[in-house]
Design a protein that fits this description.
Blueprint (H helix, E strand, L loop, with lengths): L4 H30 L5 H6 L3 H24 L2 H28 L3 H13 L6 H14 L42 H50 L1
Helix pairs in contact: 1-3, 1-7, 3-4, 4-7, 5-7
Length: 231
């Protein structure tokens, strides 16, 4: 019994898409990591980016192996490919559930992280510079309590805003940003989460198709080998 060529090349095409999705995850993760210039505050508040980079690399490797298994009709590679896809799918679902459950605790989690930095940033010159960069990029002032976080020191120029050029809700009457950086970091996290969830959903769909096609091809190769042995 011959292997269905349609299933074989559909699996190859799937793995090509899978490999490309790994490239997408890797690219987005690297962008998120470097877009804030390795800022210490965003590294604290946006954890897990290194894990996303690792996941992107793993998916790229699995996509490549899946392509080889489909073209070579290797049952061992296809079975390992199916098992790894199943494990990734389970982890993806578990992570999605955990993220949905803990989303309401995001504000508390960010506040706790930034509270630790607030207590030490005045003694750490590198951290002070990171905060001032963050204030310019996110249009905010202070970490948790606004400009009062800088007291009794003068408010840095990175807190200054143009009243005529910015939203009056962002710029206070004294010419400084009125929004604490914690609020802006939370908004940044929510925006990034939407991107990650969209990518995760697309990958979950690809995983289901990949598991179906890999098992179909695995069974067809087994029947072909059995028919050859009996001939």
């Amino acid at each position: 019994m011959a292997v269905n060529k349609c299933v074989k090349y559909l699996l190859f095409f799937f793995n090509l898409l899978f490999w490309l999705s790994g490239c997408l995850i890797l690219g987005v993760s690297i962008y998120l990591k470097v877009s804030k210039n390795a800022n210490q505050i965003t590294n604290e508040a946006l954890p897990g980016i290194d894990l996303m980079i690792a996941i992107g690399v793993i998916i790229m490797v699995l996509g490549f192996l899946g392509c080889c298994g489909a073209i070579r009709e290797n049952r061992c590679m296809l079975l390992l490919f199916f098992i790894f896809l199943l494990l990734i799918f389970i982890l993806l679902v578990a992570a999605g559930i955990a993220g949905a459950v803990s989303q309401n605790k995001m504000n508390e989690w960010v506040d706790q992280r930034l509270q630790n930095l607030t207590a030490t940033f005045k003694q750490d010159q590198t951290l002070r510079e990171d905060i001032q960069k963050l204030q310019k990029e996110l249009k905010c002032c202070g970490l948790l309590n606004g400009k009062s976080d800088w007291a009794p020191e003068p408010i840095p120029t990175s807190c200054r805003c143009n009243v005529t050029a910015t939203n009056t809700n962002e710029c206070g009457s004294d010419g400084n940003y009125s929004t604490p950086c914690a609020t802006q970091v939370i908004n940044l996290m929510k925006a990034n989460m939407k991107i990650v969830l969209g990518i995760a959903f697309a990958i979950a769909v690809l995983l289901i198709f990949g598991m179906v096609f890999s098992m179909m091809l695995y069974c067809q190769i087994g029947r072909k080998d059995g028919a050859t042995a009996n001939a």
